[in-house]
């Protein structure tokens, strides 16, 4: 497929076209971004990905690795390896400028025009809404604690107001869209980093650099814990199959290597630093309840600032999810403007959050389900990356937008069976190897509980896709 070439009317890198200007509602949805409206530099992507990864969740994951029985240095190795999957996030992002379309449209090249609707409905839209609910629940818990510090009783009406307020801010950013996210996340990343650096000083003062777990792990037990830890850490970068959404406005001539590098670094660097900080905190504190543990070492004046940073960081993460979930609804075939599709997804996410926090233990059920997300998202990410490399990042942006049988991505009856078979085979192979609280596959049982779902799912799906696409090319 030929790549879409930039035309001479393209704006200069410093210009911002009216259709994508910070502070204005973005007018584009899943449609092709013409060369005349392309703008920006690859390095802008660093802050876009750094802001949501300077997060409280990273501290929680780091502390959890210590609770699982790893030493600090073992946990650090797991953190680095798990975050190396950010390279895949970066490779996917490079397809954005090449096609001028979001990830939700680019995957039509993998699954076909019709087949992609099923893929997006399950692997993008549904999981995005679940993540919205989970993140809003986490931010709301923190906000409940924050208001109580100011003497306000967190009654049910107060909780409802807090949940709605957090959702409103998140959805506002998602509705305003791409340019607002790029502009807002640069100072936001700096502020959040400063706050967490101050917190790091208190953590370092209470860390036990000579820490050793009460019972050191050895043999199969160690490998099982390491595999589980890598899967937990890698689940974040593997879920970002939407990274092209935030790169598609860059000029088509932008270096794919630069897009890949700045995206990957933006996700990798802060995630490694702050997850490692959480692991270090776990050497001196009981991170079973991270918020309470951290508050015991933070001064009274700084604790509200820390809690507010947790809320803001979660909002930054969720705004990107809300933005992409709106694009996902459009790509499925729902004829709504992007801003309205974001609000629709947000309403569903709010309803799930209210139910989770105020009615039942639904949150536990969703959390257990998300532990199996790697089983699904790993093969999808692997096939996406394989497609980018197999095509040498050449996509026909206008052809991707053509949903008729004349589209170059129509394949057979609107379905590319190479992508469909590869993903389902990869998911099946990963399911045989998964070891999670809700389900353990027969292969995982046979090898002593070592979870091999991540490497197996990635390798099987990517290899099978390339083999099947070579056969398609020959035909």
TrEMBL record:
> Predominant location of this chain?
membrane
Listed A to Z, the keywords are: Membrane, Transmembrane, Transmembrane helix, Transport
Tell me one Pfam family matched here: Transp_cyt_pur
The transmembrane residues are: 46-66, 72-97, 118-138, 158-176, 188-205, 217-238, 259-281, 301-321, 342-363, 369-390, 415-440, 452-472
Q: Does Transport show up as a keyword for this record? A: yes
What residue spans carry the region label Disordered? 1-23
Q: Name one GO molecular function term.
A: transmembrane transporter activity
Q: Where does this one sit in the cell? A: Membrane
Superkingdom, natural source: Bacteria
Entry GO terms, CC: plasma membrane
| Topological relation to the membrane, as annotated | Multi-pass membrane protein
Xref: PANTHER family? PURINE-CYTOSINE PERMEASE FCY2-RELATED
| Family stated for the protein in its record | Belongs to the purine-cytosine permease (2.A.39) family.
Q: What is this protein called?
A: Putative NCS1 family transporter
The record lists the organism as Rhodococcus wratislaviensis NBRC 100605
């Amino acid at each position: 497929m030929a790549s879409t070439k930039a035309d001479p009317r393209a704006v200069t890198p410093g210009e911002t076209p009216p259709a994508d200007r910070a502070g204005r509602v973005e007018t584009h949805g899943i449609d092709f971004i013409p060369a005349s409206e392309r703008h920006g530099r690859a390095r802008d992507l660093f802050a876009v990905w750094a802001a949501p990864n300077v997060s409280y969740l990273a501290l929680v994951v780091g502390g959890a690795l210590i609770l699982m029985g790893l030493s600090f240095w073992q946990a650090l190795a797991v953190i680095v390896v798990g975050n190396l999957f950010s390279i895949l996030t970066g490779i996917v992002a490079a397809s954005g400028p090449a096609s001028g379309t979001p990830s939700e449209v680019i995957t039509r090249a993998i699954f076909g025009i019709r087949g992609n609707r099923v893929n997006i409905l399950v692997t993008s839209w549904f999981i995005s809404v679940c993540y919205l609910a989970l993140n809003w629940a986490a931010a709301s818990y923190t906000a409940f604690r924050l208001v109580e510090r100011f003497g306000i009783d967190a009654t049910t009406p107060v909780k409802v107001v807090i949940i709605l307020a957090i959702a409103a801010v998140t959805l506002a950013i998602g509705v305003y869209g791409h340019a607002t996210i790029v502009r807002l996340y640069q100072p936001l990343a700096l502020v959040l980093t400063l706050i967490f650096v101050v917190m790091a000083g208190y953590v370092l003062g209470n860390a036990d650099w000579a820490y050793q777990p009460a019972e050191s792990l050895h043999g199969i037990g160690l490998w099982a814990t390491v595999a589980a830890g890598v899967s937990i850490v890698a689940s974040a970068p593997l879920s970002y199959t939407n990274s092209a959404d935030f790169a598609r406005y860059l000029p088509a001539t932008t270096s794919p290597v630069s897009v890949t590098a700045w995206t990957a670094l933006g996700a990798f660097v802060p995630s490694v630093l702050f997850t490692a900080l959480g692991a270090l905190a776990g050497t001196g504190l009981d991170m079973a309840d991270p918020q309470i543990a951290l508050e015991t070492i933070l001064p009274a004046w700084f604790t509200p600032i820390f809690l507010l940073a947790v809320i803001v960081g979660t909002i930054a993460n969720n705004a990107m999810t809300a933005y992409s979930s709106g694009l996902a609804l459009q790509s499925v075939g729902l004829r709504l403007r992007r801003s309205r599709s974001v609000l629709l997804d947000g309403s569903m996410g709010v309803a799930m959050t209210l139910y989770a926090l105020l009615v039942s233990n639904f949150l536990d059920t969703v959390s257990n389900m998300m532990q199996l997300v790697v089983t699904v998202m790993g093969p999808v990410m692997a096939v996406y990356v394989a497609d980018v490399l197999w095509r040498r990042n050449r996509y026909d942006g206008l052809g991707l937008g053509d949903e008729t049988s004349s589209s170059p991505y129509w394949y057979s009856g609107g379905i590319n069976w190479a992508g469909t078979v590869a993903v389902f085979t990869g998911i099946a192979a990963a399911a045989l190897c998964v070891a999670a609280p809700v389900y353990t596959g027969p292969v995982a049982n046979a090898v002593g509980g070592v979870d091999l779902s991540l490497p197996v799912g990635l390798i099987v799906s990517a290899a099978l896709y390339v083999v099947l696409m070579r056969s398609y090319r020959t035909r």
